[in-house]
Each structure stands twice: as structure tokens, then as C-alpha cells.
Amino acid sequence: MLDIRRIREDPDPFRAALARRNLGDAVDRLLEADERRRSVTSRVEELRAAQNRASKAIGAAQGGEKQQLIDEVAKVSGELKELDPELAKAEEDLRSLLAEIPNVPHESAPDGFTDEDAVEVSRNHEEPPVLGFEPRDHAELGAMLGMLETERGARTSGSRFVYLRGDLVFVQFALMRHAMDVVVEKGFSPMIPPVLVREEAMYGTGFLPTDAVNIYVTRDDELYLAGTSEVPLAAFHLGEILDEDDLPIRYAGYSTCFRREAGSYGKDLGGMFRLHQFDKVEMFAFCTPETSWDEHERILAIEEEILGNLEIPYRVVNVAAGDLGGAAAKKYDIEGWLPAQQRYRELTSCSNTTDYQARRMQTRLRRAGGELEVLHTLNGTATAIGRTLIAIMENHQRPDGSVEIPAKLHPYLPERARVLAPRS
RNA sequence: GGAGACGUGGCUGAGUGGCCGAAAGCAGCCGCCUGCUAAGCGGUUAGGGGGGUAACACUCCCUCGGAGGUUCGAAUCCUCCCGUCUCCGCCA
Predict the structure, then answer these.
(1) DSSP, residue by residue, A144-176
(2) Quick one: A22 and A119 in the same domain?
(3) For A86-109, what is the mean pLDDT?
């Protein structure tokens, strides 16, 4: 949620920033709703002040004088009752507008509206490596290994659901453990959060109301399945005031993630690139506004370290302003090279959501001097299953369909699983 | 699934119609005092939204889980909703 007072005081920067999201008129709609709300508010408040004064006098008055004062104030009360719906509507209009308008992109987010407009900022290799043989895609490798069951997944649950089997399960565990170890060493404290969450948590993170189509909802309990542990991690401090001295606060959440993937029909079918259910280790940070951009780079560096450890060729792109999720002011995607697709595909990402989520969550910070302020939040993927497994399988495959698991994962693996071998 | 209790400020907790945005304690902050530390003494500290200011000051409105209602007036009375906890049952 944006800060309506700052918009009122200095709307032009907001106008310009939101125009980059194709929402050039949003600021004026906001200002209009704000103006309406304030004018009704001041009328109502004048009447209420009169009513309060009268009530005080009545409390002190006696007998007939009392009755007379009561009769007089009735007129004011009547007027107030009439204005009430008007005020409620004005407030609701502003509130719902604010709820759906996304964060303002940071100046360093490039112009544009699609993933094509993202700007590469770095990579960990020169040219994509050439395997020297015709690479198989991960679905084929998974089938050859007998470790990825897509048809049976579909039979049980529908498309975009899979079974992982055999040693690939241990590779997932190894990956999770490795990612967790890396991020914990960087100061993130481990968490296993709830994945079914209340509406406030979804609203606070900005997934509701705008992204409702992508969220699973339980039928009888009005609980939502989190698409990322960002949701419960952010909500961990919902409504709280954190001491400046305690910041930054960093959590690493391990959870299963559920996404409806509405609107992605036909994209990335087969295999496990785009699943309705996958496991992920997610970083989440609460910090002061003045440190959040540094924190963002820090999180990016951790993500790069993890992919580097996995010996995956990747590049980092700065996502275009118009392609950002609603809460983000800036986002990096790290795209891993997938030999079978001959393309870079998103493996992880990290966003600075500045004060957008924190304001919705009412998570604030108390400065050493006692002042209250909305803080900043950030999130980033440490490792996401499905995609990271794909990158490992495709990049470390051998001509015979076996897969070498990167050395950094070996300490977490049964020895036989250091190489995944096809069934003969 | 059945029964009951409760929701008040940063925290604990009092408050059953006007003197209450709210006792007391804790915690925090500012002083004082005391070789240091600890203790002690005095003062002070809720949040949000308008107006106002260069910024303060000042001022008004709202907020005691939420939404309605009764009343001139509600933390307090009524209705509904939400949430939390406890006991019993069931259960990974």
C-alpha cells in the first residue's frame, strides 16, 4: 500500500513511477478519492465536536435545562446520521483503491512491461556451455532415471503435479539442507511456517485482492494456501512494532508452495518447471528503510552463491518496472541456463518491497529516539524445487542419461546418489 | 464434535453509562542522587486521521477484537461476526 500523505504532498514522482506500470491515472484517482474523503471527514468532525460539547454540558446540567439541551443536540445527531453513509463510502473508496494500486517501481528498475524488457546485469560465465552431445530435457531424464512420474502425478492430482521418486528425493533434501545451511550462515534464522494462512496475511503481502485467481482457497475454513513462505514469514510480525536495534530481522522459511498458475495454460507443460505444488527455501528480511537497498544486493549475492555452488550457469536480470509483482519496487531474477531449452529460465528471484507490504501489515519500527516508522521488507528464493532440480539435471547430465550431482551437495547425500543412474 | 471463559496501551492488568484515552505494575525515555554496578527519588511515554506550522507548538475527530444497535452521551448495555484460550471427546 502506498502512503497517501506522501502522494498528496508530492504527487508527481508517484505519477511518473506508476506510469511505468501503465497506471498513469492512478494517482489522480487516488487524490480525488482522498479529497472527497477529507472533505466529508471535516464536515463530520465539526458536527461530532459540536455533539461532544453538547453532551458534556448535558452531563453537568440539571432538570428542565437538561431536557432543553438534549432537544437541541438531537438536530446535530440527525445530521450526523445522514452523513454517515457518505463518510463510510468515501473511506471505503479510498481504501479499496489503495489496496489494488501496486508499489512504485524504483528508479533503477528498467522501463518496459514484459520479461523481454528485463536487463541483464551480470552472469557467472561467458557463453552458455556446450555439452558436446544432444542434451535431453529434464522430463526425459527424469523418466529414464525412473525418478520423475508426471503421468501418475496427473492421474492423481491433475496436470502440473508430479511424483519425485528414488534418489531424486534425496537430491531435493540435499538441496534444501544446503540452501538452509548457506542462508543460516548469512544470518537468516530457520523457520517452518504455516502454509495455510488467513486473509490478512494474503492481503498484507499484496497477493489479495489483486492476485486472487492464483491462490488456492479451502472451501470450509476460509484459509488460503500460501504460494510462497514469504506470506507467513511476512505475517510473522503482523501488527507489531519492532525495535530499530533488533533490525535487520532475517528468516529462512522452508515450505511447500501452492500456485494455481491461472493464465499459464499450455505454458511449460510436462516435467516440473511449472507446478501447482513445490518446495522452497525462502529468505525474508525486515529492515530499516535506509538499509533495504543494500539488503537487496546482499540477498541477491546469497542466491548467486547458492547457484554457483550448484555449478549452474546463470545470469542476473533486473526486471522491468511494468513486469514487477504488485508489492515489489525492484526485482532481480536469476535465470539458469537450460541446455535442452537453449534458454535462460527463472530459477530464483529477489524483491525489495520497500514499505509496501509493511504498511499493509502494519509492521513498524521504533527508532532509538522513540519515533515510529514503517519499515521495509524483502524476499528472495534460496532454492526452489522443480526448477533447481531441472537445472542440475540438464546441466550435469551425461550422454547416457545419468546425472552428476554437484560436489557441494555430496555431504548431504547417500553415496550412491552422487550420480543418478538410469535404470538399465 | 460438545461445553465454557476471555479479547483494554510496548507488555501485565484494573475499569459495568458522563469525573475514562483509560488506575496500577512492568518496560522505555529524561533528570537527580549514589566511587563503579545494583538499588533509590522525581518527571515523562498509546495509536491513527484531519486542520495548522518552515519545523515545533497548538487544536479537532476516531480508536478499549470487528460491524451494527440503544442513548443527549458507550471500554461499560444489546445483537451479530471474528479471534484466542481452557475442559471433554476424537485424532497425525
Answers:
(1) HHT-EEHHHHHHHH-TT--EE-THHHHHHHHHH
(2) no
(3) 91
A309-324: pLDDT as tens digits: 999 999 999 999 999 9
Give residue A316's pLDDT.
98
Which residue has 525492484 as its cell numbers?
A330
Rounded, the Å distance between the CA of A26 and C1' of B18 is 46
Q: Is A53 a catalytic residue?
A: no
CATH number at residue A343: 3.30.930.10
| Single-letter code of the amino acid located at A396 | H
Instruction: Please give the full DSSP string across A367-379, using - where no structure is assigned.
Output: -TTS-EEE-EEEE
Distance A368 CA to B30 C1' (A): 14
As for how many domains chain A has, the answer is: 2
Bridge-based pairing of strands A419-420 and A403-404 is antiparallel
Residues A181, A83 share a domain: no
Asked if residue A42 keeps its beta carbon closer than 7 A to nucleic acid strand B, the reply is yes
Residue type, position A273, single letter: F
What is the reported pTM? Answer: 0.93
Lowest mean pLDDT among A55-64, A80-89, A415-424: A55-64
A37 catalytic per annotation: no
* Per-residue model confidence as pLDDT tens digits over A182-218: 999 999 999 999 999 988 899 999 998 889 999 999 8
What CATH number is attached to the domain comprising A14? 1.10.287.40
Nearest nt (C1') to A76 (CA)?
B72
Domain boundary among A38, A73, A100: A100
Q: Which three cell numbers stand for residue A85?
A: 453513509
Which nucleotide has the least CA–C1' distance to A370? B29
